[in-house]
Amino acid sequence: MALAIGANTTIFSITKRVLFDRLSVPHPEQLRLLHWRGDKQTAVSNVWGITDDSPEFGAPTFSYPVFEQLRRDNHVLEDLFTFKDVGRMNATIAGNAQIVQEELVSGNYFDQLQIHPQLGRPIVAADDLVGAPAVALISPGLWQRAFSSSPSVIGCTIKVNMVPVTIIGVTPAGFTGAKSVQAAPDLFLPLSSQPLVEPRGRNGSLLGASSPEVWWLNIMGRARPGISDATAQASLDVSLAAAVRSSLHPESNTTIPRLNLVDGSRGLFLSKGMFAKPVGVLTALAALVLLLACSNIASMLLARSAARQREIAVRLALGAGRVRILRGVLTESSLLSALGGVFGVALALAGCRTLPTLLANSWEADQFAIPLDLTVLAFTAGITILSGLLFGMVPAWLATRSDAGASLKSAVPTSSRRRSGLTGKTIVAFQVMLSTLLVAGALLFAGTLFKLAHVDPGFRTVHLVLFAIQQPESRYPPPQRS
Q1: Burial of 362 (0-12, 13-18, 19+ CB in 10 A)
Q2: How many CA atoms lie within 13 Å of 148's alpha carbon, on the beta-carbon side?
Q3: What is the C-alpha to C-alpha distance for residues 399 and 312, in angstroms, rounded to an integer?
Q4: 273: confidence class by pLDDT, cuts 50, 70, 90
Q5: Are the beta carbons of 109 and 255 closer than 8 angstroms?
Q6: Are strands 46-47 and 214-215 parallel, antiparallel or unpaired?
Q7: Measured distance CA(361)–CA(364) in Å, rounded
Q8: Band of the pLDDT at 407, cuts 50, 70, 90?
Q9: Phi, psi of 250 (to 5 degrees)
């Protein structure tokens, strides 16, 4: 039971975190993400971001001029805000060089998400003006790693891609930004600092207000009361068409992308495409393990209760009341269930801390967090404990209603014996079926892992060091093409 609680809690926590958890902001159900779709002749040709694999091309990214015009024309959502996860950056903190994850945000980002820093102040509109001093909010993880959670971090200066940046606040615990719920960026910088810290995107194109061709910014907004999503989408689609025509000047043979308004409560929700199938398989296996654990508990407790029928009959013959006997059986079952639950929680904690390390790689810090979900823990523990109590109490209750004299003479009525035998055989058959299915799946999985571990890459894999040199483009610009 302990193993079942631990394994199922870990897997169900992963499933909930990856596919069902929402952004850690007030009222995430109000958030709407802007997304566009087009065909092969669409006017948008330079996209930095995640694109979909559907027959119709599209992405949740927009250029800065398009964002400005959509924001000016917007009357159907709350104020639009934008953000962009620009990935890994060089940072020098207290004389130590390290790689950090950075997200560029508009000046109204924290205001619209209704997020208040646990220390310092948020990024505001004045910080997002051209020429404003470069400032940043840091995550609790970076605050603890680099500054030992010292309150004196406010006002400290760090260098991001050789650019001095002043720390003005620390984001609250659990806040992961607007991109996803799995990992939090180390730094949040205003969009105005982009020409200094990230002048070019990952595709080498110049970014910023002077680059209407590059579509790279993610845009969100909150729904307004009384305005449907269909109405908001239709209004913003008109604004998008006008913005594309004014910024890209499309030719006559190109098409204008169409705007879609989608749920933004889970951010960009990239984990759905990456983990939906494997997490679904793990969840199905976890459900089978949970069923097998419950059937094991049921068979053991039924066998134990059958063996104790004579004991219960003796107690009834000596004058013990039915309530007292049932209370004793309930206490015993509860104690066994509690012991299994304690060990299960310990295993679940170990699993939630161990599994994220399997997703780490050599280039990025281990930021994928799987907290122990109390709702999932209560569900798995409740199912397992309920099965223990049910199959521990029901046979005892039936034994107290049987004839004590017949039980003492070991002359149990034929109907009771047949019912008990059928119940036991049914549970055993169910266990054999589930065990066969799980063992077959485990053998296939182990065989796959063995083959992957013994793939010959064509070179010696021992004593190898993997490293990369990432120079700041603000100091080492790319070569100019003639």
Answers
A1: exposed
A2: 2
A3: 7
A4: low
A5: no
A6: parallel
A7: 6
A8: low
A9: -65, 150
Which residue intervals of 36-168 are DSSP H helices? Answer: 64-73, 109-113, 140-147
What is the DSSP-derived secondary structure letter of residue 186? S
Cα dihedral: 52, 54, 56, 62 (round 10): -10
Q: Residue 144 has which token pair?
A: 């603890």
3 state SS of 206: strand
Closest of 36, 61, 34, 63 to residue 49, by C-alpha: 61
What does DSSP assign to residue 29?
G
Per-residue pLDDT of 421-457, as tens digits, reads: 555 677 777 778 877 877 887 788 788 878 887 888 8
Distance (Å, whole) CA 312 – CA 416: 16
Q: At what angle do helices 414-453 and 271-307 cross, to 10 degrees?
A: 140
Q: What is the largest CA-CA distance in the chain?
A: 105
For the chain, domain boundaries: 2-11+274-453, 23-263
- Residue 23, both tokens: 């952004």
Given a contact cutoff of 8 angstroms between Cβ atoms, the answer to whether 230 and 266 are in contact is no
Q: So what's the pLDDT on residue 479? A: 60
Q: How far is CA 292 from the centre of its chain?
A: 27
Residue 478 CA, distance from chain mean position: 36
**pLDDT tens digits, residue range 279-314?**
777 778 777 777 777 777 667 766 766 666 667 777
Three-class DSSP category at 418 = helix
Q: Which amino acid is at 243?
A: A
Average pLDDT of the residues in 259-278 = 84
Report the C-alpha gap between 354 and 121 in whole angstroms. Answer: 34
